[in-house]
Amino acid sequence: MVVETIKEVNPDKIIIFGANGMLGYALQQVFPQAHFFGHCEADISNENAVMNIVKRECPSVLISAAAYTDVDGCEENRDKAFAVNGYGPGYIAAACSEVGAILVHYSSDYIFEGTKPEYREDDSPNPINVYGESKLLGEVLIRKYMKDYRIIRTSWLFGSHGRNFVDTILSLSHELPEVRVVNDQIGKPTFTTDLAQATPSIIRSEPGIYHITNEGQCSWYEFASAFIPNAVPCSTAEFPKKAKRPAYSVLANTKTSPLRHWREAVEEYIQTKRNVV
Questions:
Q1: Contact yes or no for 114/126 (Cβ under 8 A)
Q2: Cystine design at 221: which of 90, 177, 233, 276 (Cβ 3.0–4.6 Å)?
C-alpha cells in the first residue's frame, strides 16, 4: 500500500525546492534533515538543471515550494509566470518520475474564477488571471508526467521570511490614520507554519489533489480588522489592480482534518513577531 511505503521514507532523502521563500522557510522547520535548494541552486524553469539535480540527489520525496507569486507581476511578465509556475512543475514531475520520487507541489486558489461560494478538490478550474493560468498549467503537467504526486492547493499565505499581507497591513497601520482594504474578495487565510506542519500527513496520504487552508473564511477587510484597529472597507473597483481577482476563492477541504481557525493562527504569528522585536 502507498501509505506503508511512505512511512519508511528516509528524512535525508527529501529535497525542498524554493527553500528560501516564505513557505520554504516554514518547511525547513518541519523537515530539518532535508536538502534545501533556493532559486540560485535550483532554477525550476531550467529543464536540464532540474533533471540534473534530481538525478544527482535521487530523492524519495521532492517538495516544491518554488513559484513566481507576484500576482500583478505575472500580468506584465507572462513568459516568466508560465516558465516558473507552469513549465517548471512539469520539469520537476518528469524528473521525479525518472527517479521514482514522490512530488509534493503547492498550487493556488486562484485557479478558480470565483463565482461559487466554495471550491472542492474535484471542481473544474477556470482562472481569470495570468497567475492562475500559470499555476493551473503546472497542475496539468504534473498530472501528465507522473502519478505519485500530491498537489496541495492553498490560499492567502502569511508567515515569516517573506512579503505578505499581514506584515504589509501592520506597517501601513502605523503609517496611516486609515488603511483601506477591499471587502468584496472572500477567501481563507493560511499560516505557512500550519501548512508546512500539515505536509507530512499529506505525503503519507494517497496521491491526488488536496485543499489545505486554515479554517474560517473572510474578506481581506475582515482579515485586516482582526489585527489592526484602523482598517476601512472599500470595494475592488475603488482599489483596482493589474490582475483581476476572484470574488470567492474559498477552498473546501474534503479530504483531511481541518487546521485551526485563521484568527488563532494570525494571533500567534503577530505574537511571535512581537517576541522577536
A1: no
A2: 233
The H-assigned helical ranges of the chain are: 2-6, 22-30, 47-57, 71-76, 78-81, 88-99, 130-145, 165-175, 192-203, 220-225, 262-276
Q: What is the DSSP string of 120-139?
A: -TTSPP--SSHHHHHHHHHH
Mean pLDDT by 10 residues, the chain (277 residues): 49 94 97 96 97 98 98 98 98 98 98 97 98 98 98 98 94 97 98 98 97 98 98 95 96 96 97 76
- Residue 93 belongs to domain with CATH number: 3.40.50.720
Q: What are phi and psi of 155, to 5 degrees?
A: -155, 155
Beta carbons within 8 Å of 46's beta carbon, 6+ residues apart: 91
List 16's β-bridge partners, or say none: 36, 63
Whether residue 31 contacts residue 13, with contact meaning beta carbons closer than 8 Å, is answered with: no
Q: Are 112 and 247 in contact (CB under 8 A)?
A: no
Whether 131 is catalytic is yes
What is the reported pLDDT for 272? Answer: 87
- Locate 130 and state its grid cell: 495570468
CA distance 102 to 56: 16
- The domain of 143 spans 2-164+188-217+249-261
Return the amino acid letter for 249. S
* Spatial distance between the Cα atoms of 11 and 246, rounded to a whole number of angstroms: 38
Phi/psi of residue 19, each to 5°?
Answer: -70, -20
pLDDT value of position 4: 41
**156 domain-assigned:** yes
Q: Which of 131, 210, 248, 269 is catalytic?
A: 131
Cell numbers placing 32: 530539518
Q: Per the domain annotation, does 199 fall within a domain?
A: yes
